[in-house]
Amino acid sequence: MSDDLKYFEDLVVGTKASFGRYEVTREEVVEFATKYDPQPFHLSDEAAAQTHFGRLSASGWHTAAMAMRMTVENMKGQRSAGLGSPGIDELRWLKPVYPGDTLRCETELLDKRVSRSRPEMGITKGRTTVFNQHDEAVMTFVANGLIRTRPQEN
What we know:
Strand 3 and strand 4 (121-131) form a beta hairpin. The chain has four helices and five strands; from the N terminus they run βααααββββ. It is of the alpha+beta class.
């Protein structure tokens, strides 16, 4: 068992992190929308010009996928006893994301507790905020995570 593996007990409520850089392209916005959210303002400059967006904008679900990509890239350099996530809460799309934007993430660990039914794992709650290149928050969500507690030595 490696000493650098991060367990539930190693997490500190209030810990913050900043990471990621994702350049939003027009081609990717249209490709994602074509497959998953084919609304006119995600597909056509002309249609988007007729809406409050004013121009082609990324699907909120695409923004969430871009945030997930940055999160996974950030986790690559860290060894964690993480067990996935049972879901997210409070997903909010605050501002449109446009082709040409560059996104980044900030996270904060809000809470942690040991599972009552499965004491070998802990449950975490953390807020992720996605910002554009102008430091404007474009999306927030609260993620729930599962992570192993440190095994007891015999």
